[in-house]
Design brief:
This protein is α/β, with parallel strands linked by helices. It has 14 helices and 13 strands. It has a seven-stranded mixed sheet, with helices on both faces. A six-stranded parallel sheet has the order 2-1-3-4-5-6.
Length: 360
């Protein structure tokens, strides 16, 4: 059995880590998740302590609780491997066993804090820059393999922690995410057929660039901006913005297929599943230079990459360029060639196979 230490079960896909877990479970069908819910069911006092703490301080306590659940799992089953995510790998109750361990770094909290200066509150900046960053670095201790989801994440962990990792980039299932009939997709959502529709799939906050998107909408009343967000928000939205919530993962291709272009003005990403999903549906993407698009600049085969903190005017110009050059772009070919599920499966299978043979 393989254990995956992660905060939420795969059924609750709404962020990148849960999407990553979905693909990892397809690679390793015998994998069992060790989550906060399992720790709570086991009666861990640390889940109660975590519930009393401010939201931003719950991760350390939850990690201790999940360690207890992992220990119980190891005693009751033939545990062959442990894979942990993000900060949730810092507490290792099996450190004196011979069970091999893999840790996945999805992004750097320190890099996120520095990239988001002026956007995060002072408290959030300090938590990310120092507290969360400390637990991320601690998660590398005692692991047999450390993986970053992009070259950008690898460089950030080298920069901030002097920790070396290997890169296995995220992926997209091109069989699930494919271009559907735009007219039917727009009708189902209630979008007009005769207007340019720009998409935004992310939480509604400035770190993800929602302020840029809001200004874009105000500057372009002739366009429609479709927003898919995991939660309700108090942000004011313009009349030409339409927001959808609680869209199942399997229905997301119909959201992307309704778009003319996806907008991603984010300040920091590890390796964006959203961009890959849109590209797989052959939708052009305009994104910031971060994550898997780090060091890229300007027009490219899938759309355009803009510098970090580009303003609404820059995204407006890029939208116009994409619309004028749409016939020359091939986002699906780009993502299929570079970020296929087959490649993801092969890389993780090889990594785990080598670890298990080494510990047999």
């Amino acid at each position: 059995m393989i254990a995956l230490v992660t905060p939420y079960p795969r059924a609750e896909i709404w962020r990148g880590v849960e999407t990553f877990n979905y693909y990892l479970e397809r690679v390793f069908p015998d994998m069992t998740s060790v989550t906060i819910a399992e720790a709570r069911q086991g009666g861990s006092a640390w889940t109660k302590v975590g519930g009393l703490l401010p939201r931003s301080l719950r991760v350390p306590a939850h990690s201790l609780a999940m360690g207890g659940a992992l220990t119980r799992l190891a005693k009751s089953s033939d545990l062959r491997l442990v894979i942990s995510n993000g900060m949730y790998g810092w507490y290792d109750p099996l450190d004196r066993t011979h069970v091999p361990k893999v840790h996945i770094f999805h992004g750097s909290s320190a890099a996120f804090a520095d990239a988001s200066q002026g956007v995060l509150s002072r408290r959030a900046h300090l938590y990310n820059r120092y507290l969360y960053s400390y637990f991320e670095a601690l998660s590398a201790t005692g692991k047999d393999a450390l993986v970053s989801v992009s070259e950008f994440s690898r460089e950030m962990f080298l920069k901030y922690h002097n920790i070396e990792t290997r890169v296995i980039a995220n992926c997209v299932d091109t069989q699930l995410f494919y271009r559907q009939a735009r007219r039917e997709c727009r009708d189902a959502i209630g979008l007009p057929q005769d207007k340019t529709v720009c998409g935004y799939v992310a939480p509604l906050n400035e770190a993800k660039g929602f302020d840029v998107l809001s200004e874009l909408a105000e500057r372009n009343p002739h366009m429609v901006f479709l927003i898919k967000s995991p939660q309700m928000s108090s942000y004011r939205t313009a009349d030409n913005m339409k927001t959808v919530y609680d869209v199942p993962f399997e229905r997301m291709p119909s959201i992307y297929s309704a778009l003319d272009v996806l907008i991603a003005p984010t300040l920091h990403e590890g390796c964006s599943f959203v961009a890959f999903e849109a590209m797989s549906c052959n939708v052009p993407v305009i994104t910031s230079s971060t994550g898997c698009f780090w060091k890229m600049d300007g027009p490219c085969s899938f759309g355009e990459v803009l510098p970090l903190r580009s303003d609404a005017a820059a995204f407006e110009r890029s939208i116009q360029w994409v619309l004028e050059n749409r016939e020359d772009l091939n986002p699906r070919e780009y993502v299929t060639r570079n970020y296929s599920f087959d490649r993801f499966k092969r890389d993780y299978s090889d990594l785990v196979s080598k670890l298990l043979s080494r510990h047999s």
